[in-house]
Every structure is written in C-alpha cells, then in structure tokens.
Specification:
Largest interface: A-B, 27 and 17 residues
Structural class of chain B: alpha+beta
Number of strands of chain B: 5
Strand order of the largest sheet of chain A: 1-4-6-2
Strand content of chain B: 25-35%
Subunit structure (chain A): Heterotetramer of 2 MoaD subunits and 2 MoaE subunits. Also stable as homodimer. The enzyme changes between these two forms during catalysis.
Pathway (chain A): Cofactor biosynthesis; molybdopterin biosynthesis
Number of strands of chain A: 8
Mean pLDDT of chain A: 93
Keywords (chain A): Molybdenum cofactor biosynthesis
Radius of gyration of chain B: 12 Å
Distance between the termini of chain A: 23 Å
Low-confidence stretches of chain A: none
Family (chain A): Belongs to the MoaE family.
CATH architecture of chain A: Alpha-Beta Complex
Number of domains of chain A: 1
CATH topology of chain A: Aldehyde Oxidoreductase, domain 3
Order of helices and strands of chain B: EHEHHEEE
Helix content of chain A: 25-40%
Order of helices and strands of chain A: EHEEHEEEHEEH
CATH superfamily of chain B: Beta-grasp domain
Shape of chain A: globular
Catalytic activity (chain A): 2 [molybdopterin-synthase sulfur-carrier protein]-C-terminal-Gly-aminoethanethioate + cyclic pyranopterin phosphate + H2O = molybdopterin + 2 [molybdopterin-synthase sulfur-carrier protein]-C-terminal Gly-Gly + 2 H(+)
Number of helices of chain B: 3
Largest sheet of chain B: 5 strands, mixed
Oligomer: heterodimer
Shape of chain B: globular
Number of domains of chain B: 1
CATH class of chain B: Alpha Beta
CATH class of chain A: Alpha Beta
Chain lengths: 149, 85
C-alpha cells in the first residue's frame, strides 16, 4: 500500500505497469481524475489551485487504504494526489487497486474515491480569467460516501 | 497549556493567519471552548466562526466533534468541508 502527495505530474499507466510486475493479480482497476475546463458559473477555467494539510493528508489517505483492505481481499492499493497549481486537463488524483478478482478491484476503487472526496483534507480554488474562488463541498459527496455504510 | 493552531483554505483567508502557537486559559477544556475564545478576538474572528457554520475541526490530524477535549501540545486545525479528488 502506498500514498503519494505531490506537486508534480504523474503517469498512472507507467505506475500501473511497474506495480503489476510485483503482484500475481487477476485484475486491476484504475481511476484517474482530471481538471475540468469549466467552472460552475461557466467562466473559462484557467487553473485550479489545491491546498492541503501536510501530514494529515497522508494519514487520511493511508486510513482509507486500510479501510478498503479490511473490507475486500486486495493485493495492493496505490493512491497519488496532487496539490499546488494545476492546469486544465492535467491529472489531479490517481488510484490503482490490484486483486485476484475484478469484483473486489472495482468495488474497492469506487469506495476509495468516495471516501477520498470527503475525508482527505484537500481544498480546491478555481481560477478563471475573471476571478478566483473556493469550490463549495457537494452534499452529493457525503451521500455517495454514506452509501458504503 | 500551550497548543498549535492551524487554519486552512477559506478559513485561513477569512482570518488572515495560517498558524499560531498560543497559551490557553485553564477554563478552555474542549474544542468548543477554544472556538468561543477565538470568536472573542474581534469581529473578523467572530464573523468567520459564525458564518462558516460548516467549519471542520481536527485535533492531532484526526477529524473531531467540538466536544473533543484539548490537551497540552495538541495540534488543532480549522478548515472548511473537503473538496479534493
């Protein structure tokens, strides 16, 4: 299990290929989230700035990996999340789950992104050519997480 | 007792401070007591903690409710709901 919190870009395909060699898994599921090119008020989004809580972020992500590994039989979990200034189209978050069977990998990956959305201390600020503002948390994110209870 | 305070994102901007270390009076026992004290610092503080009703709190990097007891050398953080991923 690993978590990486970093400013720089990552290439999830390359990471997945490397990790695959370490495990005799029957399946892997990857999730990758990107910076969208529109904001809620439909101004053109130039950039996203992500703030986080160093120390707590890593702890929260490890806790989520632990929860997932207690719930499903998994071979490995990898989470990478960026902070700082991110351009439109760039990746923000990547998750890879390895398991013997597809069902566990699909479910665990879905679970991890749902928990990450509400439990990992990151805050997005959208920067358009007009202004910048903090993104409001969505009630839907809490609902998605609570479905796993 | 001495504690470290951290403020993030919208909360940090509203208060104009990102971290500080302070000595708490013995009457401050819980996170709610601490919020009460911070509100008394002036209108910016009062407004920020009142308006940001959805403020989240963490003690030693674990999210807690406001009845959580504070101990010496704790790291207490205030921040808005999370919007990562």
């Amino acid at each position: 299990m690993a978590v990486h919190v970093q400013e720089g870009l990552f290439d999830l395909q390359i990471i997945a290929q490397k990790l695959k060699k370490l495990h005799n898994s029957g399946a892997s599921v990857t999730f990758e989230g990107y910076v969208r090119d529109f904001d809620l008020s439909q101004d053109k989004l130039d950039m996203l700035e992500l703030e986080h809580y160093p120390g707590m972020t890593e702890k929260a992500l490890l806790d989520i990996e632990l929860l997932a590994s207690q719930r499903w039989n998994l071979d490995d979990i990898y989470i990478v999340h960026r902070y700082g200034k991110l351009k439109v189209g760039e990746p923000i978050v990547g998750i890879i789950v390895f398991s013997k069977h597809r069902k566990e990998a699909f479910e665990a990956c879905h679970f991890i992104i749902d928990f990450l959305k509400t439990d990992a201390p990151f805050w997005k600020k959208e920067i358009t050519n007009q202004k910048s503002y903090w993104v409001e948390a969505k009630k839907l994110d809490d609902e998605e997480k609570n479905k796993w209870n | 007792m001495r504690v470290k305070l951290f403020y993030f994102a919208k909360v940090r901007e509203a208060l104009g401070v990102d971290r500080e270390e302070i000595d708490l009076a013995s009457s401050i026992q819980t996170v709610a007591d601490l919020v009460g004290f911070l509100k008394s610092r002036g209108s910016a503080w009062h407004t920020a903690f009142n308006e940001l009703s959805s403020i989240r709190m963490a003690v030693n990097q674990q999210i807690v409710e406001d009845d959580h007891a504070i101990r010496a050398n704790d790291e207490v953080a205030f921040f808005p709901p999370i919007t990562g991923g």
